[in-house]
Request: fold
Amino acid sequence: MAPALGWLLQLLFCSCAQSFPTDGWFQQKLDHFSENGSPFWEQRYFINNTFYKPGGPVFLMIGGWMTIGTNWVSTDYTWITYAERLGAFCLALEHRFYGQSQPTGDLSTASLRYLRSKQVLADIAYFRTEIAKKMGLIKNKWVVFGGSYGGSLAVWSRIKYPNLFAAAVSSSAPVKVKVNFYEYFEGVHSALATHNSECSKAVKDALGQVIKLLKFPKYYRRLKNDFMLCEHLKVNSVMDSTYFVENLLIFLASIIQRNKDNETIKSTPNIDDFCDKMTNTSLGSPYYRYARIMTIRFKNGNPSCLDANYQNFLKSMSDSDLDKENIEEDRQWFYQSCTELGFFQTTHSRNHTFSGLPLRYFLSQCLGVFGSEFNYNSLTQSVQAINMYYGGFNVNGSKIIFSNGSLDPWNALGITKDISEDLPAVFIKGGEHCADMYQQKDTDSAELIQAREKIFHILQKWLKE
Reply:
């Protein structure tokens, strides 16, 4: 989930609103840990009580690093189908500093100091407590849901506030945070290898050729045309050339991470389509095959070209103004990465064929955007503290479901094997990122359908206890 590459990272949920859900604004505390009291701000949430039966459970979906909308509670995503079967009351809560839930009215570094996981968990706990009083849901059993980073928050909410949440259901949730997340591209490599080893080799050759061409200015026009750059390629530093490589690798990562869910992005292939083209020698060299696949995305999609200018990236990420009509998420997520979470997807591994993304590149971005205090030492200390506070892989809790897909590179930081009967893992063969959360499709695999049912029956059992 690299920042400033939103053209590659579509929202987790599609748009499909109906009339019955409603939205609301909750008076949330800015600083839950201030000894002198705290100002309040308006946090957005959504309700769907269509399926609620008095005394039934309350499902709370946690928004992660993105804007949420009515569709989160109106579309038949898996958690909504569970609600229908269990008579649950549904709520979705937007994360502070994302979407319309803006505590301070700007994204300055001074304001973003309130963007910390402990504050976010306290938001969730305070919202749950006060809304339960307001809506007469104090005696109901509450279940917290989330996917990806939102899934991490769901897990941590159950661990830190077991008195407020009877259970947690997480999908593709990294429970351990890590500065140097080199395992990510190990997962990408492994996913390609499930098709055939020639696919991974072809990708290596293609990206290797790009890295060679970037060393010589005479090839910049060629790179611009082959990859449909928005403007002439400018390489004045290693950061410029590395940013270009990052764009190419993130495109590949988006194919792997979403795989068959890419059907919602018509011009983006799934793994099988991608590897079929990458191993088709009639399409030219691996370099041209990769460029051909990538440019199809721009010819048929939005945007219509690739912005590979690192200075544009720095300018965009350094902009602390808040456009309420068009709120972006990149700066906020990057701040979280530089201060607490890391998750920098480097190529520091011998267990794959990729290269070109060193950790120092991402750390230099942090320094360039936020200042000298955002350095390796401060981030490492913070990451260690987070893992100690929440437990990392040593989950200290109960009644938490961990689902992960075998093709999802994020599963390296998640729980993929049962810890205990009360901490079960649901590992989905062939599943992509958050696969079990989406609407069921006719093309879903038997493994995915069975995983959704397994999660449902575990949750049903817990709610009866």
